[in-house]
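During the reporting period the student researcher (J.K.) took over the structure-prediction task from the postdoctoral fellow and processed the backlog of single-chain submissions. One of the processed entries is reproduced below for the supervisory committee.
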Amino acid sequence: MESNLINSSFYSCVAPSNSSRTFLSQYDAIKQPTSTIDLRLDVQSGFVYNTKYNSELIRYDNNYNTVDMIQLSDSIQHLEPIIDSLRPQLVVDVGCGQGELVTYLRKKGIDAVGFDPTLTIKDDFLIKEFFDPTILWEHREKSCLFIMRCVLPHLENPFAFLDSIHMNFPLSTIFLEFQNLDWILSNHCWMNISHDHVNYFSVTSFNERYILERSGSFAEDEWAYVVLSGARNQRLLSPHSPPPLSPSNFVRQFELMRLSKQNLLENLLLIDDNLLIYGAAGKGTQLSYELSRLGLDNVTVIDNNIHKQGRFLEASGYKVSSLSDARKSLNANSVIFVSNPRHAQFVRSFFDSTLVKVQSDFWPIT
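J.K. obtained the following structure tokens:
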């Protein structure tokens, strides 16, 4: 039975091709192509991947925006002790966004560079490209720390990418941050499943392949991190390494996720034109698209990122409002659904707390 499930799909749906883009016009937002998600399990390493991922539909253009200063602050708290301990000669931020972390580190006197195709800031230490080891070839004998914050989930061949870094920079250490698959499953958080995330990892996903120097979680366990120092010799595997993940357990977990999704959408449909969604990032984009497919066309999305306000979400075409404008539109029948439960306390403090709902209000998380 277990072997028959290895190549089985655990979760399938249609989703926006990109989850971090907004548009100046609703027409442009709605006409964006959608993509198929078909999740399966890599039993050996214990990570989930999308067999239908289509890289040709991924866009890192002027409509792309993922700036999150709160998450950057969270990252710095556990990154700084690691950097202080390792004392790398060079820090390389792969997928650096707009260079926020690189700028922070350089101000502290740490030699750091960043790579990202979405860069709009011009700086000698920020390179508007996908990471290419040949650009840093003169540093190959240095002790480098490669930082990838939510980068590995976007790569079709994640372990080959990590192996190439270790091969070209033999003294390197790699720091990875990713949305924690264990948290996604235990919270039935289907809104974390997006087309532009090819892979979903837990900390144990790296045990079989690499030496795991450190690991941890943050943001109430939604996010995890690992520090990897090189390929693991199979003879050095600990007898206490966790057993391979059970495919049948994944089937059960993803079935609960599917039921949670169905239950939430049915409840939100009852709210109809009094519904507002807080969060225009990945979770809000997935939820908005599902609601638009079911015919809801008068939904407002709220976000405190000024670069998204007044723009329209990919695929659904829902408009993003500021917090103050949204508060003016509320009435006694309004419901504000918070797509990320970690933001619920803030939203309740800004709005009438009786109007605010999270997923567990509709589907108990146990």
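The committee noted the following: The CA atoms of residues 58 and 149 lie 18 Å apart.
J.K. will present the remaining backlog at the next meeting.
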